[in-house]
Amino acid sequence: MTTFHKNIPLDKRIIFALDVETDDEAKKWVEDLDGQIKFYKVGLQLFLAGGFPMVEWILNRNLEVMLDLKFFDVPQTVASAVKQLNGRGITYTTVHGNDAILEAASQAKKDVRILAVTVLTSLDQSDLKQLGFQCSPEKLVLSRARRALELGCDGVVSSGLEAPKIRHELGQGLFIVVPGVRPVENRPDDQKRIVDVKSAFLGGADHIVVGRPIKQAKDPAILIQTMQGHINEALRLRSA
Amino acid sequence: MTTFHKNIPLDKRIIFALDVETDDEAKKWVEDLDGQIKFYKVGLQLFLAGGFPMVEWILNRNLEVMLDLKFFDVPQTVASAVKQLNGRGITYTTVHGNDAILEAASQAKKDVRILAVTVLTSLDQSDLKQLGFQCSPEKLVLSRARRALELGCDGVVSSGLEAPKIRHELGQGLFIVVPGVRPVENRPDDQKRIVDVKSAFLGGADHIVVGRPIKQAKDPAILIQTMQGHINEALRLRSA
């Protein structure tokens, strides 16, 4: 492993998912987490509530934003949508799709980074079969990630299970963002489909997206500190 | 065939695609088409420019809106997004996805109708293979449409080629919206992947989505009149 961690500071390793109904709730969370977390995910729910004014409110506080709208439309439409995101100071946006869609998105972007959604974490193998996919999620994710990079995407959204293979096969340059991470360490009897924070970063994640565990914690500040401790540890091991 | 055409007036059969960069352009088109077309599609590009204020501007003129954002995210997020659309007077919205996603969308909706995107018109069979699908687009579209209805969706977005089979197999109740239609009749030497207006409605479409052909017409008003003539003719034949 190399020591190249893209110099992402610890307070931007956790991307807090602002999965809330209103601007007011979102602002309250950003204010509550002030000084601890400097990166926020705005998804469909909040974007439909607050739109760009909400995104700008976050950016104006010197924080970063992942605008997670998961575009999946014909290439020309996705390109037009990505163009609407340029020049706003948004760090990442997300795109599904086939080669033509990912290529259109990559060509349309200027400052915003394009992350390809390799596979939704809520889809398991039986869902994939129902959708008509014949191969395993792992193979699908790796082949999609490889194509995404070749087509000019900056990285991928991937589950913690597939991240290590992607990092190993595709190198240190791409950004890997991992949602659905368990905040504390797995006990031996836990189901293995969800990785914990430390494993996610040992496996090569650049960021994790965390919402509910922090929102539901008795003391979010302490949980965040603990998670950031694990992240630090993993990053030190990775560069050792 | 039955005579049930859901009483959709002729000026709401064509949904004009407002695929433009700015609010101003969109408003100009709506004003120019005043009296001729009373149904408008707002997609990702325009929604990212104008947001709900743009949608409301259209609705306030007593026109209908299809908000075509093609949601494709985990079920909970799609449900939250759909909830943000309830009570706004939007007629249709669009959702991709697996059973869990479509079910979540259907359960979350109140007044907005959910259309399942069966397959993107820009995806052909080789794209589908590359995505890992093994069956033909036709089979995939029909099986997705059937599941979508069973899960509570109100209809589908489908190509004109698959619409007849969907209408025939799944009955008159569902809404079928067809994009990518040729405004004038096919000549014998035309490629067959795109159907013309009359064929789309003969095949069971409730609406067609048209943008570029009208925008690029020398005289949009005359083209629209011609298309509406074809629609009338097809609907008369369907109910004969």
Overview of this protein structure:
2 copies of one chain form a homodimer. Chain A has one domain: TIM Barrel, CATH 3.20.20. Helices cover 43% and strands 16% of the residues of chain A. Chain A contains 10 helices and 8 strands. The N and C termini of chain A lie close together (8 Å). Chain A has an 8-stranded parallel beta barrel, surrounded by 5 helices. In chain A, helix 1 crosses helix 2, helix 3 packs parallel to helix 4 and helix 6 runs parallel beside helix 7. By secondary structure, chain A is α/β, with parallel strands linked by helices. The interface between A and B is large, with 41 and 41 residues.
C-alpha Rg of chain A (nearest Å): 17 Å
- Helix segment tally of chain A: 10
Strand order of the largest sheet of chain A: 1-2-3-4-5-6-7-8
Name given to the CATH architecture of chain A:
Alpha-Beta Barrel
Quaternary status: homodimer
Question: Which strand-content bin applies to the residues of chain A?
Answer: 15-25%
Unreliable segments of 5+ consecutive residues of chain A: none
Element-by-element helix/strand order of chain A: EHEHEHEHEHHEHEHEHH
In the CATH scheme, the class of chain A would be: Alpha Beta
Helix residue percentage of chain A: 40-55%
Global structural class of chain A: alpha/beta
User: Biggest interface and which pair forms it?
Assistant: A-B, 41 and 41 residues
Summarize the model shown.
The first copy, chain A, is an alpha/beta fold and 240 residues long. The first copy, chain A, is 43% helix and 16% strand. The first copy, chain A, has a single domain, classed as Aldolase class I (TIM Barrel, Alpha-Beta Barrel), CATH 3.20.20.70.
